[in-house]
Amino acid sequence: MGDAYGVSRIALTDAARELLRRLTRVHGPLMFHQSGGCCDGSSPMCYPRGEFRTGDSDVLLASLAVDGLAERIDFWMAGQQFERWRHTHLTVDVVPGRGSGFSVEAPEGVRFLIRSRLFSDEEQALLDG
Question: Whole-number mean pLDDT of the chain?
Fold first, then answer.
């Protein structure tokens, strides 16, 4: 689901890639989950890989490659959230502030944030294949 005919569903900013490299040195391989729930549920949560259990309804959007990291970072989204966002390209960015205490970046004084845009008609057609 990550790339279909050269169209990706998700990207990382330079700031997000740099933070992920730092966090991986501390916590080991990482993963994201976007729940879409209340409170911090609209922000992507970053966990050590395997610390958050995905379920049958979760959708793997991409396995993100980050220069300098040996292992890709899976980005999962709750199925109901994906149904609402399936027509959107997502970019993971980093902003100052504190997110959820459960996400590994919280002690860094920053939080991950999703920026989005609608897919063009051409991109959507390729993804729908």
Answer: 89
Alpha-carbon dihedral angle through residues 84, 88, 90, 95, given to the nearest 10 degrees: -70
Would you state the structure tokens that stand for residue 3, as one six-digit string?
């790339």
> Which residue in this structure is represented by tokens 């002690």?
107
Distance, CA of 129 to CA of 122 (rounded, Å): 11
Tokens at 126, concatenated? 């390729």
Note the pTM of the prediction, 2 decimals: 0.89
Give the CA-trace dihedral at 11, 100, 104, 10, to 10 degrees: -10
Give pLDDT, residue 1: 47
Helix-strand-coil split of the chain, %, nearest 5: 30, 35, 35
- Bridge partners (DSSP) listed for residue 113: 93
Cα–Cα distance measured from residue 77 to residue 56, given in angstroms and rounded to the nearest whole number: 11
